[in-house]
Amino acid sequence: MSMLDKLSRLKVPELSRRAFAAICALTALALLIALWLASGQHTFDLFQTRGQIANRERTLLIFSMLLAALVLVPVYYMLYTFAWRYKTGHDHKYSPNWDTDKKYETIWWGIPIAIITVLAAVTWVTSHSLDPYKPLNDDRQHLKVQVIALQYKWLFLYPDQEVASVNKLVIPNKWPIELDITSDAPMNSFWVPQLSGQIYAMPGMSTKLHLDAQQRGTFKGMSSNISGADFSKMNFTVESVGIEDFKTWVTNAKQGGHFTADSYTKLAKPGGAQPVTYHLHDKSIYDNAIMKYMGGHQ
Amino acid sequence: MTSKAYLTGFMMSLSLTVTAFILVYGATSVGGSPLSQGWLIAVIASLAVCQLVVQGMYFLHLSSKGKPGRSLQIMLFVLVMAAIVVGGSIWVMHNLNYRMMPGEQKVTETIQDKENIHHH
Amino acid sequence: MIFASWLGKLDWSYFWHGWVQFGGQIATVGGALTVLAALIYFKKLGWLYRNWLTSLDAKKIGVMYIVVSVVMLLRGFGDAIMMRLQQILGSGGGHGFLSGDHFQQVFTAHGTIMIFFVAMGLMFGIINLILPLQLGARDVAFPLLNSIAFYLYLAGVILVNLSLVFGEFGAVGWLAYPPLSELAYSPGPGVDYWLWSIQIAGIGSTLSGINFLVTILKKRCKGMTLMKMPIFSWSILATMILLLLVFPILTATLFMLSLDRSMGMHFFTADMGGNAMMYINLIWAWGHPEVYVLVLPAFGMYSEIVATFSRKRLFGYTSMVWALMAICVLSFFVWAHHFFTMGAGGNVNAFFGIMTMVIAIPTGVKVFNWLFTMYQGRVHFDTPMWWFMAFATTFLIGGGTGVMLAVPAIDFQVHNSLFLVAHFHNTIIGGVVFGYLAGIAYWLPKIFGFKLHERLGKAAVYCWVTGFFTAFMPIYLLGFMGATRRMEQFDPALQYQGLFIISGIGTAIIGLGVLLQVVQLGYSIWKRKELAAGHDPWHGRTLEWSVPSPAPEYNFARLPVVTERDAFWVAKHGGPALYSGPFKDIEVPKESGVGLVVGLAAAVFGFGVIWQLWWLLPIALAVIIGTLIKQTYVEETERIIPAKELKA
Amino acid sequence: MSRQKYESPTTNAVGLGFWVYLMTDLMLFATLFATYGVLRGNTAGGPAGHDIFSLKLVFAETIILLVSSLTAGLALLSAHAGRKTRMLQLLVITGVLGALFLGLEINEFRVLLADGHSWQNSAFLSSYFTLVGTHGLHIFAGLIWLVATVWYALKRPLSPRFMQRLTMFSLFWHFLDLVWVCIFSIVYLMGVLA
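ok -> structure tokens follow
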């Protein structure tokens, strides 16, 4: 008789053995993750947020997780208690033809509708209040930055400060920033998880994003939409510095090489790039990068 | 289903078509047309819908009563779903195209206020 | 540009892409050749052609769908293992064994294969096996169309596997967003392989949709009104309505993208007025209803399984039907939640976000109805019921994260992140894969006459669930850490490697589950005598359990007459008899090679467009049209099974 | 022709199946119309509708297709009345008119290409050629079906199976005329007005 058949004749109470095995697996997984957590310093960008916009998005995320848990916990409880109590062999009430009950049905049409209405109201409000196109309510003039996603690098243009910077976005701390974003390459997505939600960067189109940094530091930025073979190398950093440091950074950058339309064309060729800054002369680079795709007039 | 029915359907479609073409031919010729652009398009659209109904009744024999009613119900359901997809797409794309326009034109457009995009 | 040369884009260099892909080429070509050699060696080629390839019996076509889908599941799972390995190696400072471009081809193939050639294949397979039996029908409405649809699906499978052997595959993601998928950025044949394999399979799906919708509306047995139909058939009715409404959108959108690539048009190009956003809008107008097309049949299977194994009527049949129809209609108002981050206004995002949440209500109602079907029932935990418990455990988390993703302001932070990747694997593996595996475990005895081995089955379920959690909980966490999807290497300073290793272990456990299922299948076939199942192995409730197992070619010797829901259960427990009256001759559709010819010609047409061999296209079209017109001249398409044979 | 009791196609399985197929075609054209609606304005510096459309040509095409729709209906009627030769004559007329319509359309495209307005020049032209061209392809498929039907009926009696196929064909032909009504209204008439 094969080993499998012997096994299947074992008379261990089936459900308890299964429950034990499931608990054992879950603890093993939890242990593994705890081990990983202890093994180093990890930042959860979506929770350890550093920007006004990202902070509000985090609260919304936590609120919706709680709301989801509010529904899931009772359902999980019912799932396993019903499975245990009504398993064949356990003595319990058996009513095979009881298949409708207006009271229960109104409950589980009603409660989800109520919860969804709450979340829908929150959604309506936050879809407008956290609209990336909505400027931050700050009476100071937003710092204007033009972002061009190129093949496998980011170009940041500061028209008012006459500075161009590659793969590094330096911003004054606690200052509202307004970003106009386009792409001179396949579609990308501009995302700095710790500061704000993402927005697509598309050729021939200009999208807007408003964000700020609430404290000094360096934050990870990336393209979160596939745009070619080396898109995973399209990372950049956002540095939030004091106002004075920002001014010095601008003056130093303006000592650098001149950034003209030709230098843009060279930079636009596919390939990575090290962070470097230039003195921006040609203010129309951003608009030309869009008009290039318009082919005549719109 | 008689030849008389087909002929009446044909004549009605013919007249609807001719009216539409004459209207547009007149509008684009030197005299121009009494109706404004928006009205003209509305008239053409209604003429087209009338012709769809006429051809549906006389050629496809769609009618609300009895067995042929089933094919009409199916068609109406599909038309509603098609309208949702086409209408939804045009609404979404119109909104997206507007918000993708480069430069500052967006600031002055009236939609600006509705979408609460206010610059200081 | 069009008549460059009669050799088109063909080039020897497309055979060689490095050692890793060479392994894949050996596996694909080797596998195909071994099967062919075995068939020739055992002299079974003729048998295969007469009994299977040209058969119009829906059940045989169903088995063929499932066999091809399982093979593609193994290939898709191989892609998954390669991705896990690459991300483990790539997040520790190394470069791993896949270049960026190759990694992108792997996940594009993984997504395309799992959705189009595994999930859709299994769905059509199970529908072919069970729908006629549940409706009390002898056959589907259009047997020949059924065969043509299968071979169009097979043409898609051939093209997607051919891309591994000769040429490349798209490196653009499973929905190939332009402008990346346009000629300017993807000049190779890769995107065309992707495009034409799913275009041809998609047209096959539309034909199947027509076939099954008409089968449900026209081929039900006497007395079975729509509200007395089994709930699984209801889920197929809802699925087919949805499928028929949205697959034309896919056909049109892919047609436009192929015109961009093959004829230089500018629908979605970055320049010359093209608008890539319109492609994204249209592909998701099909895309989201498509995932409901995949999950609704699984919901139907869970309803049948929970009712049968709880020995109880399904709780709230009417509200379950209303929930199905609500999901079917509501899924038309949600597609823009796939591009909240494109830049649409607050009104647009809020509308589509709220409609996405509203769809969670009927889904929630279905879950409550399943729970209350178990309530006060006698639940027997056989393998199908274990699959349901696995589904309930995993899918609820998927539903929860789905409602979170529906809020635009949250989606701005998690769109295209690994959180999203974990969410849709949660709903697709938890909902669709577990559902179809449950359906196969539940109905296989009816088709083959033996049960699958129980303990191996339960061990496989256990590995699938444990493996799933171990594989995808770390991916959720990575999403929270701000890791985006489709990356083959990460900055080691971010210390993602630990989580990718845990996820790799999870994938290995799932692999063990898959292995156990293969062992289970082999062992069950070997021991099919001992595992023989009678006509009613699970104390079933619906008509398919009233016929002998394996179900005969004509399904019902005498057509049943039905008076109530759960017709077989009622008949078993003192209700009016299902079968009465004399045995009559039965007409069964004759074997026909039309489907096979049309499918292969479609594959040749696809190959011709991919490699711009323009001279091939009219030939392929002529073969298709010629075969179809010739078929109209065939008079007797049925063969008779004499009445006396039925009595035996 | 005598009065025939009209038996709606959706009563039998084949009729319902074909009607459902027509509905999927309707969704296909709806998608192409939606794309045309979105890309209409994207002329990329090239010509717009009013620069390249000729109303006289479109009017001729519309009338031809309308007449062919009538003759297709009358052919079905005479088939129901059992008058095979009359049916064949009407079917041939339908085919000739259909071919004439297609000829005019292909010529219209040829002229556009000759003037340098090819589908490669702008999104508007791409969506125009594709929308009108897809309708043209359907007409071409209808003509092949028509030729096959006439060839089949030449030496055979009017069997019920043949009647079913002829009903399907006439549904298909009328459906294409409905789509053409939308095309000439939205693409040509509104295009010329803009």
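The helical segments of chain A are 3-8, 14-38, 52-85, 102-129, 243-255, 261-267, 285-291.
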